[in-house]
Amino acid sequence: MILSGLEIQKRLGGQIKIIPYDEKLLNPNSYNLRLHDELLVYEAGTAGYLDMKKPNPTRKIVIPEDGLIIQPGILYLGRTVEMTETDGLVPMLNGRSSVGRLGLSIHVTAGVGDVGFRGYWTLEIYCVHPVKIYPFVAICQIYYNTIEGGYVPYSSKKYQNNTDIQPSLLYRDFDGREQA
Predict the structure, then answer these.
(1) Smallest Cα–Cα separation from 144: which of 57, 15, 14?
(2) What is the distance between the alpha carbons of residues 166 and 163, in angstroms, rounded to a whole number?
(3) Which of 79, 99, 145, 162 has its CA 20 to 30 A from that of 118?
(4) CA distances from 119 to 16, 65, 84, 154, 157 (A)
(5) Helices (H), the chain
(6) What count of other Cβ atoms lies within 10 Å of the Cβ of residue 21?
(7) What is the rounded CA–CA span in Å between residue 81 and residue 73?
(8) Buried b (16+ CB within 10 A) or exposed e, 120-155
(9) Catalytic residue among 82, 124, 148, 178
(10) Which tens digits make up the pLDDT trace of 75-115?
(11) Cα–Cα distance between 132 and 41 in angstroms, integer?
(12) Is residue 140 within 8 Å of residue 107, measured between CB atoms?
């Protein structure tokens, strides 16, 4: 079951942490999260492609206050302003419909969080045509599902307690350092 906005508010400080929290961002059954002012983009380097088995170089882009036009065919990694933490609930992320109607996808594949996740959400931003984006805009929404049955909370060393945008750390799966 999806928690209502009032239930999200009721569980703040307990099963749900959203830092910073602003009541104006609370919706009937979700909470809006905002885009930070930095993005990462991958640089394919001399090989001309990204390699799953290796760390891939990135470069940072600052989104100016007057906006940045992002381009199709490029994956932009952003992060939320808000750090979230959940206990006993499954957090899920979706782009806001107003953002989607501009042809902007906020998470290419990773919309389901793990119970016990703590950190900032890395956003996988992709557009179908050029779109001007702005820092600190409410770009996506988090909602919470209850979980049935026993579970082991998320504890991956790859992404747990992150403090910034997280490029893919999939290469760690290949060298045996992390499988989650």
Answers:
(1) 15
(2) 9
(3) 99
(4) 12, 25, 6, 11, 12
(5) 5-11, 97-100, 171-174
(6) 16
(7) 25
(8) bbbbbbbbeeebebebebbbbbbbbeeeeeeeeebe
(9) 124
(10) 999 999 999 999 999 999 999 999 999 999 998 877 788 99
(11) 16
(12) yes
Secondary structure (3-state) at 151:
coil
**Tokens 């959400």 — which residue?**
121
Tokens of 5: 């906005």
d(CA 11, CA 5): 10
**Contacts for 86 with CB less than 8 Å, ≥ 6 apart:** 15, 16, 17, 113, 115, 116, 117, 118, 144
Query: 31-66 pLDDT, tens per residue?
Result: 999 999 999 999 976 678 999 999 999 999 999 999
What confidence score (pLDDT) does residue 86 get? Answer: 95
Contact of 131 with 90, CB cutoff 8 Å: no
Backbone angles phi, psi at 104, to 5 degrees: -110, 120
Distance in angstroms (rounded) separating the CA atoms of residues 85 and 64: 28
**pTM for the structure as a whole:** 0.92
Active-site residue flag, 148 = no
